[in-house]
Structure formats: C-alpha cells, structure tokens
Amino acid sequence: MKVTPTAIPEVLVIEPKVFGDARGFFFESFNQQAFNEATGLNETFVQDNHSRSAHGVLRGLHYQLQQPQGKLVRVVRGAVFDVAVDIRKSSPTFGQWVGVELSEDNHRQLWVPPGFAHGFLVLSESADFLYKTTEYYAPAHERCIAWNDPTMGIAWPALGTEPRLSSKDQQGLLFQNADCFA
Questions:
Q1: pLDDT tens profile 96-140
Q2: Is 131 tagged catalytic?
C-alpha cells in the first residue's frame, strides 16, 4: 500500500495495491500488520460502520470528546468529498482542515486520527461509506461542528443546491463555540 501524508501530516491517504484485469479487480481492503507497518501506527479497531447516503447529503462534522475515535474511512460505491478538521488546541494545525475525494474508482482510504472532527459530502447519486473506528460509538460524548463555519472556510464542492443535513447536523456549533481537545 502507498501512504501519503496530507497537509496535516497525521491525516493519511492510504492507497491499496489493486490487482485488476478484464474480469474486475482484487485488493486487500485491510490488513492489520500491513497497516501498522506502512503507517507507523499501532491502532486497534473495535467497530466497523457502513452508511448509505443520497447525493448532496452532508454528514458531519462529528467527533467524540470522550472516547475519541480514530477512523479509517473508504467508499465502496459512489464518491464523496471527505474532510478532517484538527480540533486539538495544542496542535500547530489547530483549526485547519484537509479534504480528499474518496470513491469506488480510486479505492483511497483516509486515516482520520483521534482529535479530529470528520465529515463528508456525497458527490455521486448515492454512496456507501465504510469506516473502522478505534473506539466504540458513544452518543453521550458526540459533538458536531457546523459544516459551513466561516472561520474554518472548508471549500466543499459546489452542488448547485444546499447540502442535505440531518436535524442533528443542522444544530452544529460554530467552531469558536465548540468543545475541543486540549
């Protein structure tokens, strides 16, 4: 696998080696030993999640203040613009974001470390989004930052319409009012 740091070095783009021919393709979507060796991380994943979303759905920006989750995310059908925001006050990249297109065609995965808010926007007709987490979902500790916070200035791809949000995501706080990590 190929591992490429983003503008925020702890957020990694992971590209598996894909073997393809006229019949289709094969790749190892996850191998603990290969992941640890390629990334230099020693994470344990405890939960796998699968979401399906329609075009224009924006989920996020989510994080858990306690039991912070590291996430290894990928798309198996469709395409999304995936975003990670550093919300660690002690970090030199505090308040900065990175965005990467993940799709069924590019097979990319994104490692979003604990201490980051995470969200994605569906670019295709629909998308199946998979993620492995390093901590269990803890709804009592979940927080949400507004996707369109002006101080962060995330450059979401234009859709021609406003993104579709859940009622929870419509209540996202401005970054300046959000609980962050030390």
A1: 999 999 999 999 999 999 999 999 999 999 999 999 999 999 999
A2: yes
Q: What is the CA radius of gyration of the chain?
A: 16
What is the value of pTM for the model shown? Answer: 0.94
Q: Which of 50, 55, 62, 118 is catalytic?
A: 62
First to last CA, the chain: 33
Structural contact between residues 113 and 141, judged by C-beta atoms closer than 8 angstroms: no
**Rounded to an integer, what distance in angstroms lies between the CA atom of residue 81 and that of residue 63?**
17
Query: Among the options 50, 131, 136, 137, which is catalytic?
Result: 131
Place of tokens 């926007």: 121
Give catalytic status of residue 136 as yes or no.
no
Q: Find out whether 103 and 79 touch, Cβ atoms under 8 Å.
A: yes
